[in-house]
Amino acid sequence: MGADQAIDGVDLRPDLDARAQAPASEGDAVSVVGLSKRYGELEAVRGIDFAVHRNETFGFLGPNGAGKSTTINMLCTLVRPSGGRALVAGHDVVGERDEVRRNIGLVFQDSTLDGYLTAEQNLHLHAELYGMPRQSVAVRLRQVLEMVELWERRKSLVNTFSGGMKRRLEIARGLLHSPRVLFLDEPTVGLDPQTRSSIWSYITRLKREEQITIFLTTHYMDEAEYCDRIAIMDHGEIVVMDTPAALKESVGKDRVQIQTADPHAAIDALRQKFGIDARLAEGAVTFGVASGEQFVPRLFAELGLPISTVSVSRPSLDDVFMSYTGTTIRDAEASSTDRMRTMARLMRH
Amino acid sequence: MAIGSSSAPKSSAPRDSSPPSRGRHEIAAVRLPSRSLRGELRAIRVVWRRELIRFSRDRLRIVTSLVQPFLFLFILGTGLSTIASAGTHGVDLRTFVYPGVLCMAVMFTAMFSAASIVWDREFGFMREMMVAPVRRSSIVLGKCLGGATVAAFQGVIVIAIAGLVGVPYVPVMILEILGLQLLLAFSITAFGVMAAARVTQMQSFMALTQMAIMPMYFISGALFPVSGLPQWLTILNRIDPLTYAVDPMRRAVFAHLKISEAARRALDPGVTWWGWHVPGLLEAGVVAILGVGMLIVGIIEFSRVE
């Protein structure tokens, strides 16, 4: 299964998701066709197609258990696909595993640092495992450590680092061997908001300073905004893929959430009186209208039910997620907990 | 230079190409060479180095893993010496037990090294090694060599106390012991690595190794001569791989003791197969073959792990 063959496979595909982009080309950092993974009965990823352009920041968005991590694991050769084909930096993830590995950097959800070594020793170990030319190690090591502002702490044991520092060190390590694609699997999960935003400032800086494609997964809606393009994933499928702006535009409506004593009566009333299809989400009656602020006075006047609170928000990626999946990401998360458990159980074998 | 902490500062002194921080980072993309023997050797060495660094950080482990051998040697050896004196033909029981303790010292440390694979897996570091563009076999081999080296350190400490139990410091003997300890430690680490490929939880791994190691140690004849045993125990003893590490160790030590022929025959009878006296070199060969065999199984298993 050589690279050429695989690229042919991509080009020959008649119809990629037309809404997202043109078919994958040879220059793409990642191109995926019909990729799937099943664990026994469970289809974690169901034949997805997409391409990530060179030097793009591409985000995978979706609730836990949507198949994001499985996809990322397949792309970085840790999990063997059940079907389909994926090229990373022009190399097949199954047939040219080492070539792929040499060209990617990885930052996982969970720390993969050795806490009993110093920051510097962790990086040296990485350099040796990746066979970096000796003369380039010292220079590059300093560059990446300075980039994440850990140069001063290079002699400290990693065990003494905070969660945010560890994540920064992992990003530095992922960059050490100058990968062409950097995979960040939930780079900010488990960090406090302040640390999260500092991690993002490093990532943005990284985009500016290095010629690199960044592929990340997240289930935070606000983080998806940092991406050039995002794909929304749900139940193992890509629901939609586009730039954040275009996706928000496609929703086009403001989101209105109201709290009332009887939400179901409110939903009925909205349908009868305004012809609006409302849903219960995050415990509030939620619906979209073209211009929310102007609608609110009418709502109070005509609904005929007491309203305790109302909030109007501009379309966010949350709304995009909602309009394509019919649920908010937080609710999707709750319902996918069972799925996750099944998956965790299957993966252990 | 690898990951030695001393290597970095001097070599990374500011170069013209990298002004300190801020500004533009002139990141000349590092070109990685494709897979080569040299690359694999570097990987083996760095994994081995890591074991040594971790061991040197863990002073407590150095002390604790010596407690058990010393208990056997000095407490059990001294305590039982009065009732054992009738059967030892004038040889100190501690001297008799000493070769067994030499084995014990390396066994526990080697097992501990193997356990760190399970640990690495639980705490994620394994993943860093698994995605590196090197063969899994290099990583497993580095781990085994690291385990063997660390265990040999421990062995040296026990060799150093030979004088206390009436064993002379003969260079040839010390080299033989060291060689056997390295071999044993390597094989035990390989056994641990093989087990670690399947057992993914630290507690289960510890329980499993206790289950395997303690009976093996008792049956091996580390604490008693292997001739004139009841048949069932003789059979178990000859099956036990550890027997073939303990016996040559005892021979190496006893060859340099000034004791009567009767004592030698009683205390160092040597392992026999259907009456045939198994040569020491063959015994060491058995341990080596088993070690390599388990290493291969371990490598195959780890290559399958996703």
Strand order of the largest sheet of chain B: 1-2
Could you state the order of secondary-structure elements of chain A as H and E?
HEEEHEEHEHHHEHEHEEHEHEEHEHH
Largest interface: A-B, 55 and 53 residues
Major β-sheet of chain B, in short? Answer: 2 strands, antiparallel
Report what the structure shows.
The complex is a heterodimer of chains A (349) and B (306). In chain A, 41% of the residues lie in helices and 24% in strands. Chain A has helices spanning 3-12, 68-75, 97-103, 119-129, 134-147, 163-176, 193-209, 221-224, 244-251, 263-274, 292-302, 317-325, 329-347, and strands at 30-39, 42-52, 57-61, 83-88, 91-92, 104-107, 181-185, 213-218, 229-234, 237-242, 254-260, 279-281, 284-289, 307-313. In chain A, helix 4 runs parallel beside helix 6. The longest helix of chain A is centred in the C-terminal third of the chain and has 19 residues, at 329-347. Chain A is elongated. The two termini of chain A are 27 Å apart. Residues 1-25 of chain A have low confidence and may be disordered. Chain B has one domain (37-304). Chain B has helices spanning 7-11, 37-57, 59-79, 81-84, 93-122, 125-130, 136-160, 171-198, 202-219, 231-239, 243-254, 261-267, 280-304, and strands spanning 272-273, 276-277. Chain B has a two-stranded antiparallel sheet with strand order 1-2. At the A-B interface, helix 3, helix 4 and helix 5 of A face helix 1, helix 2 and helix 6 of B.
